[in-house]
Every structure is written in structure tokens, then in C-alpha cells.
Design goal:
about 475 residues, mainly alpha, Proton glutamate symport protein, 21 helices, globular
């Protein structure tokens, strides 16, 4: 009977997928289809949660098949990350007349990423004060105890990390291994290699224009093919979002959500304030935040449901270049750096909140200016360290708590609501990288403002 009910759920899921296909055939707007998938996934997953709970074998069996669509879509996007970064950055050099712009692009992107992370850390600490969060009220069950024991082991992986070591890790030693994504900093490694290829092309262009033109033609062909693959994959977004959202709702522990409701509310409030900070950065370069959020919404929605900044990278770059008017070089640098450096949600708000919650237990006055300045400095500097270890917000928190000599158990106590908070954190991370691209492109006078304000300028999947 269990298998029969699971099969029925999968059949209903398949019928829903066919319904989304019919919407596509009728040329319903891409954003409408994405949000329809998001809403339908919430309803579908919520119904499964209400009827069967989170651990029923009926749901487990059905989700195993449903995840083929959701996880499969994320994998397709991750498949495109390295090829897209390479052809886009090299292609940008081919269209670029001045190689010295790369230094300016990198400096401006890093400034936005790190400055917003510092502000995000301060906001995270302030939200602890506003909501009067007390770690002593967090309950510890079997899952939390196991998580705390695991964290004690993981902490040994980050205790010896240093910023110079992380910077060195950005430099590739085997570019083929980085194209295979074998390191946590592989994406940055491909960016560095691509930049060297681009600079080399500019040098060859001066001395051997014929050979340079042959290379340029080859890269242009590779670029067009890669972007066509990106378009084909992005058209699957409504289906992927639908499946991912079903999984999120069907597996969420609502009892834990109620118990940690204040912490969740404080986290979302902090992340919302960070998005307002992003808006202020946009206003500083004369970009309407409403225009930005409207055009960035498909990418931000996918980041929210997938909880994967890497998986969102193709959609991130495509949105910046096709919808927001950011030049290709800046878009690729901003999106790629944003995967590993200065993530506002995972490396800014989250570790700052946890540190401020646990600090009073070791006798620290969290209301002092000295503590806040130290926290902001440690969080901002440690955001470099996240790149070398993987694990996102958990490792970012371990690095910060370890640097401040605070206990790490607090990280394990919120494990039950981690997925729910991580959705919003990922959205904020992706938004920050896109804002960094817009601000940098504007400051270098490369931002296409006509494209930015043109309602018809959308990503290829929306056309």
C-alpha cells in the first residue's frame, strides 16, 4: 500500500510537470511560470507534510523520484559553471581593448562584497539585541547532540586557517583539476586562469594578429554554443523550482520551526535589512532598486529554493549581462568571486548572530563598541576563509567562533531550522554578487542603462 500511494504522488507530480509544459507552449511569461512553480511546490509539499509528516516512508519514496527533477536541474546548472566562467571571461577580454580594467573590476567587486559583509555582520548582531535572543532557550535533542559532536571534529579543519593561505589557494596549480571542481576554490582558480588567457590573447593580438583572430573566432564559437546550452537548461527552471520547493516543504520540521521561531524571525529580519542595504548601494550609482529586484527575481527565486549559490551562477551571470546591463567581464568576476568571498548571508549575518548569542555565556559584554568592532572585523576577514573549506554557513560560523574563542555548540542547536534559514541566506548571497556587478560596472562607466531599464531586455530563457 505504501508503494502504491508513493506512486500516486509521483503520478500527480508528473501531471503537474506536464501542466508547466503546456504553460511554456502557450508562451506564458517565464517569471510567471517560475512563481507558479514556486507556489505549486509550496502547496504540494505542504499537503504532503500535513498528511504524512516528515519521516513517513510514503513521502521518502516519492521524494526520491521527485528529487530527480529538482536535484537533476541543480546538477545541470553546476555542470555549466566552469565552462561558462571560462568562455565568458576570455570572451570579455577578446572584446576588451584595455587589460588594465581587470584590476579595477576586481578591486571594485571586492570592495562591494567585503563592505556589505561588514554591514551584514553589524546587522546580524543588532538583530540579536532587538529580538533578545538567548541561546539558553534553544532545546537540544538527539539530532542536535549528534550535530554538536560532529562540529567538534570539523572545528579541527578550520582552526589553522589563515587569510594568506586562503589567498594562495585562489591560485591554480592544476587548471584541469579546477575545471573538474576538485577544490573549494576551483571557481576562483578558473577565473584566475581565464584572466591569464585573456591577457595573453591581448599580447598575441599585437604581435601575431592572424593567430589571435583564429583564437578569437574559436572562442566566439565556444561562447555561442555554451550560451545556447545555458538557455536550454534555464528553460527548465519552473520544473526545477517546483520539485525543489516540494522537497523543502515536505521535509521541514514544523515543531522545530515553532520552537526556534524567534531565531528564524530575527534571521529573516536581518537578511531583509541587508537587501535594503543592497538597495542603498544601487541608489548610490543611480539604479532604481525596484527595477533591479524585478529583473533579478527569477535568479533570486531559484537561489531561494535551491540553496545553491554555485547552482545559481549561470542564471546569475545571464541575468547580469542580458537583463541588468552589466558588462560581461564584470558580471563574471562579480558572480564568481561572490561564490567564495564576502557572502552576506552565510559569512556575514549568520556567524555574527551566533557569536552574539553565545558571547554572554563566556562573560563578554555584547553591547560594548569594542565587541561590535571586533566582531565586524573578524567576520569580514573570515569571509575569505569560507572559500577554502566548503560547508557554507556552518564553516563560516566555526571560523568566526573559533577566532573569538567562543564555544561552537550553538551552531548545532539550530540544525533543525538550518534549511529554512539557508534559503534566505543563499538569496542574499546571490543578490550581493549581482549588486557588486552593477555597482562596479557603473563605476567603470560600462553599465548599459538602456538595457537595465528596458522591460524587453530579459534573459534568453524568458524570450
Amino acid at each position: 500500500m505504501t508503494n502504491l500511494i508513493s506512486l500516486l504522488i509521483v503520478i500527480i507530480f508528473a501531471i503537474a510537470l506536464f501542466g508547466f509544459y503546456q504553460l511554456q507552449k502557450r508562451h506564458v511569461k517565464f517569471s510567471t511560470r517560475v512563481f507558479s512553480g514556486l507556489f505549486a511546490g509550496v502547496v504540494f509539499g505542504g499537503v504532503l507534510q500535513f498528511i504524512f509528516g516528515t519521516s513517513d516512508k510514503v513521502v521518502t519514496n516519492a521524494l526520491a523520484w521527485i528529487q530527480i527533477v529538482g536535484t537533476g536541474y541543480v546538477h545541470l546548472l553546476q555542470m555549466l559553471v566552469m565552462p561558462l566562467v571560462f568562455v565568458s571571461i576570455v570572451g570579455a577580454f577578446i572584446r576588451m581593448k584595455e587589460s588594465n580594467k581587470i584590476g579595477k573590476i576586481s578591486a571594485n567587486v571586492l570592495f562591494v562584497l567585503l563592505s556589505t559583509t561588514a554591514i551584514a555582520a553589524l546587522i546580524g548582531a543588532l538583530m540579536v539585541f532587538v529580538f533578545q535572543l538567548d541561546g539558553a532557550t534553544f532545546t537540544k535533542g538527539a539530532a542536535e547532540s549528534a550535530r554538536i559532536a560532529e562540529l567538534a571534529q570539523r572545528q579541527t579543519q578550520v582552526k589553522d586557517l589563515s587569510i594568506p593561505q586562503q589567498i594562495i589557494s585562489f591560485i591554480p596549480t592544476n587548471v584541469f583539476a579546477d575545471f573538474a571542481g576538485t577544490r573549494a576554490t576551483s571557481t576562483i582558480g578558473v577565473v584566475v586562469f581565464s584572466a591569464f588567457v585573456g591577457v595573453a590573447y591581448l599580447g598575441v593580438k599585437k604581435k601575431a594578429p592572424k593567430e589571435a583572430q583564429t583564437f578569437a573566432n574559436l572562442m566566439e564559437s565556444l561562447y555561442k554554443i555554451t550560451m545556447r546550452i545555458v538557455t536550454l537548461v534555464l528553460r527548465l527552471t519552473p520544473y526545477g523550482v517546483f520539485a525543489l520547493m516540494i522537497n523543502v516543504l515536505a521535509t521541514s520540521d514544523f515543531e522545530a520551526i515553532i520552537n526556534l521561531g524567534k531565531f528564524i524571525l530575527a534571521s529573516y529580519s536581518a537578511l531583509l535589512l541587508v537587501l535594503i542595504v543592497h538597495s542603498l548601494y544601487l541608489l548610490a550609482v543611480r539604479v532604481n532598486p525596484l527595477v533591479y529586484f524585478k529583473k533579478a527575481l527569477p535568479a533570486l527565486s531559484f537561489a531561494f529554493t535551491s540553496r545553491s549559490s554555485a547552482g545559481t551562477l549561470p542564471l546569475n551571470i545571464e541575468t547580469q549581462t542580458k537583463a541588468l546591463g552589466v558588462d560581461e567581464a564584470t558580471a563574471n568576476f562579480a558572480a564568481s568571486f561572490g561564490l567564495s568571498i564576502g557572502q552576506n548571508g552565510c559569512a556575514g549575518v549568520y556567524p555574527a548572530m551566533l557569536a552574539t548569542i553565545v558571547a554572554p555565556t563566556v562573560g563578554i559584554n555584547v553591547h560594548s563598541i569594542e565587541y561590535l568592532l571586533l566582531l565586524v572585523a573578524v567576520v569580514t576577514i573570515s569571509s575569505f576563509g569560507v572559500a577554502g573549506v566548503g560547508g557554507g554557513a556552518t564553516f563560516a560560523s566555526l571560523i568566526v567562533l573559533g577566532a573569538l574563542n567562543f564555544p561552537v555548540a550553538i551552531v548545532g542547536l539550530v540544525i533543525s531550522v538550518e534549511p529554512l534559514i539557508d534559503m534566505a541566506r543563499t538569496l542574499v548571497n546571490v543578490s550581493d554578487s549581482m549588486v557588486a556587478g552593477i555597482v562596479t560596472s557603473s563605476r567603470l562607466n560600462e553599465l548599459n542603462r538602456e538595457q537595465l531599464t528596458d522591460k524587453q531586455a530579459v534573459i534568453a530563457a524568458q524570450e
